[in-house]
Write a structure and sequence with these properties.
Helix content is 28%, strand content 22%. By secondary structure, the protein is of the alpha/beta class. The chain binds fe (ii) ion.
């Protein structure tokens, strides 16, 4: 097996390739690393055949949709995923065949209802179901602590203790663990009684991930993030700083229109010296009173 682990902040992605056939699958790719994944696959002589999200991510932007367009390969998620751009929806026990490798899906709802773990040879890609020293949270949309309890204690923790655990997140720079290590040392797994576990998960009081609404919107719809939209706009629309705008206003005679499309709070507090800035929907041509 050819194996690459790519960290993006706390997010972990995995490139898993068959050394005999050069076929590969990319698990949980992140949008800012697209060129990196393609370069790694090229360096290792791999052809990416599948793009897999272990679940609907709420804390970062998935690259599956964009890579699928770019490479012409299918996006794979669990069948509970509602994302319309998913090409292959797999169920519990089904396999993704990647050359001579077999990636077996284990449906593990709890962190999200569409969460799945993927087992291949001696490795288990646990998504956000089981993290190193933690578990996925259950307070985001479709999260369910009761389901997470079943997924962990009745499924994942009953697997081979030597199975290596590769999660979708780690914020401390750790790369992997094993099922046995997690059973022995993971603080959340020491609460083994169902009601106590559920109570613990319901009272974690974690702060919301940054960009959670935008991440869910883009990852569930296949739409573009604000950063992508701005990057695309910047490629074809000249941007100017407020200083440059000010100098244009001072140097020109009523031939410049400024239309403020920011949210209300922003345009009420914002100020462009020398220009009359109009809120969204109230375009007025300077020098042409009454025009709107
Ligand atoms: Fe997640």
């Amino acid at each position: 097996m050819i194996f690459e682990q790519i960290a993006t902040g706390g997010c972990q992605s995995y490139l898993v390739g068959c050394s005999e056939t050069s076929a590969a699958a990319l698990i949980d790719p992140e949008i800012s690393q697209i060129d990196h994944y393609i370069a790694l696959a090229a360096r290792d002589g791999l052809r990416i055949r599948y793009l897999i999200d272990t679940h609907t991510h709420a804390d970062h932007f998935s690259a599956t949709r964009q890579l699928a367009r770019q490479l012409g390969v299918p996006v794979v998620m669990h069948q509970a995923s509602s994302a319309p751009f998913v090409d292959m929806r797999i169920g519990d026990g089904e396999m993704i065949i990647v050359g001579k490798l077999r990636l077996r899906a284990i449906h593990t709802p709890g962190h999200t209802h569409d969460s799945m773990c993927l087992r291949v040879e001696d490795r288990l890609f646990t998504g956000d179901t089981l993290l190193i020293g933690a578990t996925g949270r259950t307070d985001l949309p479709s999260g369910d602590p009761e389901a997470l309890y079943d997924s962990l204690f009745h499924r994942i923790l009953r697997l081979d203790p030597d199975l290596k655990v590769f999660p979708a997140h780690d914020y401390k720079g750790r790369q992997s663990s094993t099922i046995g290590q997690e059973i022995a040392t993971n603080p959340r797994l020491q609460t083994r009684e169902r009601a106590a576990f559920v109570e613990m998960m319901r009272n974690l009081n974690l702060s919301m991930p940054t960009h959670v609404t935008e991440a869910l919107r883009t990852n569930m719809s296949g739409g573009k993030s604000v950063a992508q939209l701005l990057a695309e706009a910047a490629a074809c629309v000249p941007f100017m700083s407020l200083e440059v705008l000010k100098s244009h206003i001072e140097a020109t005679q009523d031939d410049l229109i400024v239309l403020d499309v920011r949210e209300r709070d922003a345009y009420e507090s914002g100020h462009i010296p020398g220009a009359r800035v109009l809120p969204r929907g109230q375009l007025e041509l300077r020098g042409q009173p009454g025009a709107s």
